[in-house]
Design goal:
heterodimer; A: alpha/beta; seven-stranded mixed beta sheet; 18% helix; globular; B: alpha+beta; 3 helices; 5 strands; 17% helix
Chain lengths: 282, 134
């Protein structure tokens, strides 16, 4: 599979001269399976450019869009996703279930007046909405595994497995809430089994260790907890994702050095997610 | 995916609450296995944390639970059992005999936990000690 990042900023799009290297668009990740099928993870502002890229590449008949959760920074780009305006695209939208409201109803809250000029029910593409199953599903040549994780509001993590390779995506996650991750048994760590042994993990790394105490229980991780989680799950590659909108390129690079220091010599060193980053797992 | 068993997020967060409060708490999984109890449980059961050998809901009668009039309480009338078996919240004042032989009067509140999809994933029991007699 081939993975490309179109947005990796957390919370709020933050374009500008201080975020040019890593990007200001919020979460959206393209995953091309070996059989050519397209999976998109999250519909932050990055999905606008992704949509343009897809449209420029010729007609796409089917897209599976997986939403990790419905916080604004993960869905705010959906109205500007070109596929939504193409009646010939079969768009499947997957998201965490709610016992109270359907996925379509929850997305329609965002995509309806007065927040958006067009109602979701009136877009030319007729998206097909699915609650993600509790365990796994098959998309083309891949298995997509799903697991609820600790974050504010109903949130799931995804793991995509294809031809012996695995990619785990946990953009918003606070596994260290109220505990020292290094002292907890794995089965009691949110997200452990979805990340365990993955070739590639994209993980929330919103705060520095100094910032985290003032943001505890906001649903995000410190760099130190992200590294601890990556080490305990024995992932091969850790990519620091969901950058805080206040963090400049220079600050992110300092955070990366701290992550490398904590990571030690285990597997490949952590990397910073950036727009345009491409990874091939084969 | 890893073969490691993964606890439901609702149980994980319930455990983190239990770890961080000074109130005795038990956490049951959906099958009635006691999957966690905090260190303050030793205050009501009268034994060091590592010697509290409860594993299953069905083992609760060993503490000789009774109502405040001294009538024995069957398992089915204990708040923990109601939460686990019937998926209902329950509260009661009871008397038990600890592993140290001390009889203690407790208020017990137990409540079921349902995950984000509405699935039953376990229960929490919270205890307050109201008094004791040797």
């Amino acid at each position: 599979m081939r993975i490309r990042i179109w947005g990796c900023r957390g919370s709020l799009a933050s374009p500008g001269p201080s975020t040019v290297r890593y990007g200001g668009n919020t979460s959206s990740v393209e995953v091309r399976l070996d059989n050519g099928e397209l999976i998109i993870l999250d519909a932050g502002t990055g999905i606008r450019e992704l949509g343009n890229h897809i449209a420029a590449g010729g007609p796409v008949k089917k897209i599976n869009l997986f939403l990790s959760h419905l916080h604004l920074d993960h869905v705010e780009g959906i109205g500007f996703f070109s596929a939504l305006w193409d009646p010939d695209v079969e768009l499947h939208v997957w998201g965490p279930p709610s016992p109270l409201r359907s996925l379509q109803d929850r997305i329609a809250t965002l995509m309806s007046p007065p927040l958006f000029p067009v109602h979701l029910a009136d877009v030319p593409c007729r998206p097909i909405y699915h609650d993600v199953p509790e365990e796994e599903l098959v998309i083309g040549s891949a298995r997509v595994l799903v697991q609820p994780v600790t974050h504010r509001g109903s949130t799931v993590a995804y793991r995509i497995e294809e031809n012996g390779r695995s990619f785990a995506y946990i953009p918003d996650h606070e596994p260290g809430l109220g505990r020292d991750l290094e002292k907890v048994e794995p089965e009691w760590v949110s997200g452990f089994s979805i990340a365990h042994g993955a070739d590639m993990l994209f993980h929330d790394s919103q705060y520095t260790e100094d910032e985290y105490p003032n943001h505890r229980a906001w649903g995000h991780s410190s760099i130190a907890d992200t590294v601890s989680f990556g080490l305990m799950t024995k992932v091969r590659n850790l990519v620091l994702f969901h950058h805080d909108p206040a963090h400049t390129d220079e600050e992110l690079e300092i955070h990366l050095e701290r992550a490398k220091e904590l990571w030690g010599s285990a597997n490949d060193a952590p990397e910073l997610a950036h727009e345009g980053m491409e990874i091939e797992l084969k | 995916m890893s073969a490691v068993r993964q606890r439901n997020v609702a149980l994980i967060l319930a455990r983190e609450l239990a770890v961080n409060v000074a109130t005795p708490m038990w956490i049951w999984d959906e099958r009635g296995d006691l999957v966690y109890y905090n260190e303050h449980v030793q205050e009501i059961l009268g034994a060091p944390h590592h010697e509290i050998g409860i594993g299953r809901l069905e083992e609760l009668p060993q503490f000789e639970p009774e109502d405040l009039d001294g009538n024995p309480l069957p398992l089915t009338e204990l708040p923990s059992a109601i939460a686990v078996k019937e998926h209902l919240p329950a509260h009661r004042e009871i008397r038990i005999t600890g592993l140290d032989g001390v009889r203690r009067t407790l208020a017990v509140t137990a409540y079921p936990l349902f995950g984000r999809s509405g699935e039953f994933c376990g229960a929490v029991s919270v205890f307050w000690q109201l008094g004791e007699q040797t």
